[in-house]
Design a protein that fits this description.
The structure is a single chain. The protein has one helix and seven strands, in the order αβββββββ. With about 90 residues, the protein is mainly β. The strands form two sheets. A four-stranded antiparallel sheet has the order 3-4-5-6, with no helix packed on it. A three-stranded antiparallel sheet has the order 2-1-7, with no helix packed on it. β1 and β2 form a beta hairpin. The radius of gyration is 17 Å and the shape is globular. It starts with 15 loop residues before the first helix and ends in a 7-residue tail after the last strand. About 10% of the residues are buried. The model has no long low-confidence stretch (mean pLDDT about 90).
Length: about 90
């Protein structure tokens, strides 16, 4: 039997500030790692296909789907299932 986690936590609203900072930058400059082949490179080097209900970005190394972005009225869905990691450069505000 596992012990319950006794650490104190806050709800997901605590992520609002940090995520706003991350997504306020040009994500195409971020360096991603493909889940399929492990290739790393800027998001700007992905192969983006626009003839779908949204945008589909594929790895230039293995052609695996790395990212999907679908926009609707007042909403967007971002699927990064094929991305192992995303290193995003931030502007130092200090």
């Amino acid at each position: 039997m596992t012990q319950p986690n006794t650490e104190q936590y806050v709800d997901g609203n605590a992520l609002a500030g940090p995520l706003a900072e991350v997504f306020a930058v040009d994500v195409t400059a971020a360096v991603g790692r493909c889940m399929g082949c492990g290739r790393t490179g800027p998001v700007a080097t992905l192969r983006v296909y626009q003839h779908a209900p949204g945008l589909v970005a594929r790895c230039p190394g293995c052609d695996g789907v790395v990212l999907r972005l679908v926009r609707g009225p007042g909403m967007a869905w971002l699927d990064l299932k094929g991305t192992m990691s995303l290193q995003i450069p931030l502007v130092d505000s200090g």
